[in-house]
Amino acid sequence: MWGSSLSTVVRPAARHQAYLGRRAYIATKPFQGAAAALALRKPIPAQEPEPELPLTEVDGRRVAVQWSSDLQSRFHHIWLRDHCRCSECFHPITKQRMLDTFSIPADIQPRAVDATGEGLVIQWASPHEHTSLYPWSWLKNNSYDPQQFAPKPDWQKPIIWDNRTIRTRTPTVEYYDVMENDDALYDWLAKIKKWGVCFVRGVPADLNSTEALARRISFIRETQYGKMWSFTSDLAHGDTAYTNIALPAHTDNTYFTDPAGLQIFHLLEHTGGTGGETLLVDGLHVAREVRRRYPRSFELLSQVPIPCHAAGDEDTFYRPDPNSGYPVLSVDASTGEVWHVRWNNNDRSVVNAVHPDLMEAWYQAIRDWNRCLTEPSAEYWVKLQPRTVVVIDNQRVMHGRAEFTGRRQLCGAYMGKDDFMSRLRVLWEKGEAGALDVHERRNVWSPGL
Ligand SMILES: [Fe+2]
Ligand SMILES: [Zn+2]
């Protein structure tokens, strides 16, 4: 058993000394023999009473940490060495890895493993003497075997909506609040992330105020339509958006390799006519319906790439890279959930990369998609009014509009998904940590690093 093989070793001077307390270190030999049970090693009782520490077990490949009687995480030695967060291995300011991962022997073994009040401390002997500390909470939050202990912010779980849900719980915030107050800003961005759409009331009906609102989130993404765009039905650009005809539900920029993350719309004026209602459809709802009712179609929608183009302006000709395009639905390989919807049947190019044996099934798949997309239970029609802005997650929620007459003027902008998410994450981080200095708030143990 372990007792007989344990020996006290003298600790080399190490940067982690401050973390280590006064406990002696115990060398643990790599566990030999796969069939044998893992040996438990209890921490040596210290002189002062200490909180109960997790039990750890070590074998030739992993360290196991017993969180409770029925919950254990296992970490490979190579993973532990690679994830050392000491200032030599991971830069405390830039939060970048400095350790050369490829200098770690593939079969690296800890020389000593110790459970301390500060966390798991591992002493490594090769390729050179090194000591690593892993706080318990960090280990637990980053457990990959099993996965997903870490508490997640609420906005990471979408509310997938149909007409009834959004009509009764319409996500809405007030302009004054989001402009003045960071908590309200956080609430707004969290709603956009969770619902894929959010209305902002009380926005002065002009382009500058709409731009100021957009800039509360982040940069505006300049495209062939400009930065802040403002349009009427004057065909200023060769796109149906610049006419008065109806637009079926779609996402924008299917012809980009990286479609805009957010789209912000403000109806500034609609006079002398009727129509022009805005249509919103949650792509995640449609995807869920297709998956449940037409599984084969769901498969094709998530696998078959569709080429698209924007070629109505003489000086631009957009196609995604690669030219074969992207599937309607992108599925997150780690969760199996749809995370990105790209759909604009008007912008679809010649479909010539679908296998001939699949062509009819693919047409059936987009027919099934269109059926679920156009069901009244999926559609949310809203008549936008000046002073109400709508923000749409363009990688999830589809938008369209009814035909209209009269003079209808809108302004808006595109924004990057990453810039939006970065803003949301920072606001979340501030809320979690309080109003501390950034280096206090975000350290090498922060989630997501
Ligand atoms: Fe559009
Ligand atoms: Zn290190």
Automatic annotation (TrEMBL):
<comment type="function">
    <text>Converts trimethyllysine (TML) into hydroxytrimethyllysine (HTML).</text>
</comment>
<dbReference type="InterPro" id="IPR038492">
    <property type="entry name" value="GBBH-like_N_sf"/>
</dbReference>
<dbReference type="InterPro" id="IPR042098">
    <property type="entry name" value="TauD-like_sf"/>
</dbReference>
<dbReference type="Pfam" id="PF06155">
    <property type="entry name" value="GBBH-like_N"/>
</dbReference>
<dbReference type="InterPro" id="IPR050411">
    <property type="entry name" value="AlphaKG_dependent_hydroxylases"/>
</dbReference>
<dbReference type="GO" id="GO:0005506">
    <property type="term" value="F:iron ion binding"/>
</dbReference>
<dbReference type="InterPro" id="IPR010376">
    <property type="entry name" value="GBBH-like_N"/>
</dbReference>
<dbReference type="GO" id="GO:0050353">
    <property type="term" value="F:trimethyllysine dioxygenase activity"/>
</dbReference>
<dbReference type="GO" id="GO:0045329">
    <property type="term" value="P:carnitine biosynthetic process"/>
</dbReference>
<feature type="domain" description="TauD/TfdA-like">
    <location>
        <begin position="172"/>
        <end position="414"/>
    </location>
</feature>
<protein>
    <recommendedName>
        <fullName>trimethyllysine dioxygenase</fullName>
        <ecNumber>1.14.11.8</ecNumber>
    </recommendedName>
</protein>
<dbReference type="InterPro" id="IPR012776">
    <property type="entry name" value="Trimethyllysine_dOase"/>
</dbReference>
<keyword id="KW-0560">Oxidoreductase</keyword>
<keyword id="KW-0223">Dioxygenase</keyword>
<comment type="pathway">
    <text>Amine and polyamine biosynthesis; carnitine biosynthesis.</text>
</comment>
<dbReference type="Pfam" id="PF02668">
    <property type="entry name" value="TauD"/>
</dbReference>
<comment type="similarity">
    <text>Belongs to the gamma-BBH/TMLD family.</text>
</comment>
<keyword id="KW-0124">Carnitine biosynthesis</keyword>
<dbReference type="GO" id="GO:0005739">
    <property type="term" value="C:mitochondrion"/>
</dbReference>
<dbReference type="InterPro" id="IPR003819">
    <property type="entry name" value="TauD/TfdA-like"/>
</dbReference>
<keyword id="KW-0479">Metal-binding</keyword>
<keyword id="KW-0408">Iron</keyword>
<feature type="domain" description="Gamma-butyrobetaine hydroxylase-like N-terminal">
    <location>
        <begin position="59"/>
        <end position="139"/>
    </location>
</feature>
